[in-house]
């Protein structure tokens, strides 16, 4: 069981890191097609 728990913990750490990076890139608001390209269009 410890082996599967270790994999689960590593996977959760990866997902948390990915979520943090997405939050930095896109903010906390829900993604919207009109707001995704604001920096490029304005």
Give a verbal description of the structure.
The N and C termini lie far apart (53 Å). The relative contact order is 0.09. The chain is built from three helices and no strands. It is 79% helix and 0% strand. It is mainly alpha-helical. The protein has helices at 2-26, 33-36, 38-41. It is rod-shaped. The longest helix has 25 residues, at 2-26.
Total number of helices: 3
pLDDT averaged over residues: 83
Relative helix content: over 70%
Q: What are the low-pLDDT stretches, counting only 5+ consecutive residues below 50?
A: none
Instruction: State the shape.
Output: rod-shaped
Structural category is mainly alpha
Q: How many strand units?
A: 0
Taking all Cα atoms into account, the compactness measure Rg is: 16 Å
- Largest beta sheet, briefly? none
The first-to-last residue Cα distance is 53 Å
Determine the strand fraction and express it as a percent band. Answer: under 5%
What order do the SSEs take from the amino end to the carboxyl end, as H and E? HHH
């Amino acid at each position: 069981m410890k082996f599967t728990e270790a994999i689960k913990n590593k996977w959760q750490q990866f997902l948390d890191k990915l979520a943090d990076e997405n939050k930095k890139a896109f903010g906390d608001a829900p993604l919207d097609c009109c707001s995704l390209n604001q920096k490029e269009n304005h």
